[in-house]
Batch of 2 targets.
Target 1
Amino acid sequence: MARSSKTIVLLPGDGIGPEVTSAAVAVLSDCAAEFGHRWEFVELPFGGIAIDRCGSPLPAETLAACQCADAILLGAVGGPRWDSLPLDRRPEAGLLAIRRKLGLWANLRPVVLREPLRDVSPLRPDRAPRINFEIVRELAGGIYFGEHSLERTSGFEVARDVESYSTPEIERIARFAFDRAARRSGRLVSVDKANILASSALWRQTVSRLASDYPSVSLAHLYVDNAAMQLILDPAQFDVLLTTNMFGDILSDEAAALLGSIGLMPSMSCGEGTPLFEPIHGSAPSLAGRDLANPIGAILCATLLLREAFALPEEAAWIEAALDAVLDAGYRTPDLTASGALTFGAASAVGPSFSAASTSSRGRGVSCSGTFRVSDSFTVGCSGFVAQLRTRLREPLPQLERYGWGV
Ligand code: IPM
Ligand code: MG
């Protein structure tokens, strides 16, 4: 009998969204087969493609399916094709609408430098001994959802976007962040601009007031300009970083840069309705359809989904172990290699089998069925990377040591 039976709505969206979403689905399907789960995938239009097909970035049918599902996997939205539309009719408006309509007020962005990708970080190794923290971004308020206006007065135009936060909005996201910190190493840093903005002054005061409810958590505050600098100077000081919608958007791209590529970071949006998982990279129109996308952000969305939405940490760890093994063997999508973009070969590159790759000679630029080895790494496309991962996932689970340690 299936151990877990769930419905996952897929919103692949635009650009590289469909490629990376199918990578996550492939891995989740392998996981279901291995562990005896039954997951039904329901794919629906969302974003630019939904504007073209249904006239709206979030069609009613898509929203209804999302409301009934157990989890949502989203690819990416937007592209030049829709850039000239008014702000409230663009693909991005669909993203804000789904967040608001599902009551997704918390956004979690884990920033983890995986051991095999240490050399991909732009930081010197002595500056990045350990990068493993979470950004908690408020997602349903602030300037994104304040009043937006454009007026024409005395011959010129004035545009206005209102940043506003209420104490209940701040309290719910702050409690979420305190809880995350309490389950980790207990260090919470709240980021604001309380020396200038009234909304930030209320933010700081409210977060401080809640601190006494969480005696195991130590709370510190940083102004956002200082936080941006500290992220580069000493990312290891962070454990959980709590911030507003706008500051969270900006700081999470900066945090992704610490890892070496925005293609590596997943996110979870949650609150009242169905949780939604989405890599933080955009739709990358210039990479779309060329098999150049990095599927790791989407694959880590799958593992975040397993841990946070389905409470299946063992399954998530199984996938992440295979992912690290593939990275350890040297497989890299072009965004992770300095020279990869130049040496990348066939669009549908599928590399040698996992074990063959790990025994072939290093550093000679060997070409094997569409995969090119450059110094210590193979540059592969999205599909080639996923093929390697699936080969690894199909290897038998390590057997228990039959005679005990050391015999
Ligand atoms: C993100 C994105 C979105 C945001 C855009 C596409 C609306 O940048 O999720 O980080 O700003 O929230
Ligand atoms: Mg962003």
Target 2
Amino acid sequence: MSMPAQMIDGKALAAKVREEVAAEVAELGDVGLTTVLVGDDPASHVYINGKHKAATSVGIHANDLRLPADTPEDELLGLLAGLNADDAVDGILVQLPLPSHLDETKAIEALDPGKDVDGFHPVNAGRLYLGRPNLVPGTPLGIMRMLDEYGIEPRGAHAVVVGRSSIVGKPIAHLLLQAHATVTICHSRTVDLGRHTRDADILVAAVGRLHVIGADMVKPGSTVIDVGMNRTEDGLFGDVDPAAAEHAAYMTPVPGGVGPMTIAMVLKNTLAAARARRGFVSARD
Ligand code: NAP
């Protein structure tokens, strides 16, 4: 009989990452993060409040800019240019989604790539693609930290990523490739998804569809990373049927898995950006 999977404790690991960041922030001195929220999307307010609480808890000075929903584009771009030029600002986060009259691509491209602690700027995406990552999005970075912490070796493993978004699917595929996994990327047009997932030593599900990965689609003894956040009347659920834990070796729970790691890694990025701006060779040194 196989043993049930060991659950990967993202909450505990995120607390450990925050402790690491706090110690380094204390050593480095003033580190500043500015968040920009346009409009009044309730979910965005919750996310921004969470980021501020986390930043403050590690000693990062968090500056909370909130603009009205009808802010004109030139005003937003002007504000971002000001933050780029402000020496007290190490990291800038533009909370997405922006109201529909604002172009998200333009806003992200207006950021100084060295202050783009979400890692969404084309320069940061391009560096990751080239295998010379600098600031990498928090969710994929958090996944790599989880694998490392639990001694799960990507080298030589078959990693299957379901989802190809720019914030999760593509960057995690690149990080796994860089860590010498053999990577398959699946998406909505993939024919016979289970054929691919059943061969995965490391399976990353980043789809946003409740239990799209059935328990019978998971390889025995594999590692399952569930990025999905599907809100239902009964609570928050992932993309993977929790029954997969019966035969996986490691699995992330939802909630308490990938979610808490994301903000912690954005704090780590803010620290890395601050170090780079103070003359350390690269954000990763
Ligand atoms: P997204 O931009 O909507 O991308 C979803 C991806 O899933 C797309 O590439 C899509 O394929 C693919 N897909 C859709 N239906 C599919 C199916 N039936 N079979 C296979 N692939 C399918 O979403 P995202 O931003 O990457 O987020 C994915 C999930 O992760 C969401 O639930 C989100 O809430 C969650 N998330 C969690 C965190 C966290 O911190 N825990 C962070 C970010 C996101 P196409 O490209 O062909 O459309």
